[in-house]
Amino acid sequence: MYLVRTEFIVHLGRAAEFEAGVGKLGDARKGMPGYLGQTLLRSYSYLNRYVGTSRWQTVEAAWDFTKSEVLANYAKNASSEVATVTRQEGYESVFEVDAEGAEGGATPSACEVLVDWSLNPGAVSDFESSRKEFFELRKKHSKGFVSSRLRRSGGIPTRYLALNIYATVEESRTANIPAEVQKFARAHPYTLYAAAPPVMEAYHVVHRK
Q1: Domain CATH code at residue 173
Q2: Which of 10, 57, 67, 123 has the fewest C-beta atoms lying within 10 Å of its C-beta?
Q3: Short-list 43, 149, 56, 49, CA closest to 96
Q4: pLDDT tens digits, residue range 34-44?
Q5: Structural domain that includes position 36
């Protein structure tokens, strides 16, 4: 699976228009080969910041979409006065840890916390195995846990993105409180894998399509 992450700054007073436009794009994408779905997120910290993620079977399917008439028509009708793209990046799937019912959408999920990692060379293998164990502990002990997904940059082998999904933003803030989770976090500090701490931000889920 290949994930495309696009960040936007939405201009003052255009949030409703932007959200509706991205929703229509998601509906139009449904007929595209290799398309799996999209999510639109709005930052809790910066009210005009949004992140869209689209999921594809392969990077080639994502590339083909960039040359499609569907995207050309969307770009033609999208006003530059509504939003500005500030970043776009692609990631390969590493693994997912899902709560029961999460895959089919039965579990409510109103919050996603995105965590950006930039690893030290040589730390990749240990990092991936430690995150798998850490996410399994959250699945078992953290209230409101829905899913944790690890993604590796499509072109930069030391860049990773973790998507941590919770039922509510309040439960995202208590995910590391359980004693078992805290114990693991203390034994596996970020310094084992990276020179700088990961950057994380919580988002409200506007829609999933």
Answers
A1: 3.30.70.100
A2: 67
A3: 149
A4: 999 999 999 99
A5: 2-208
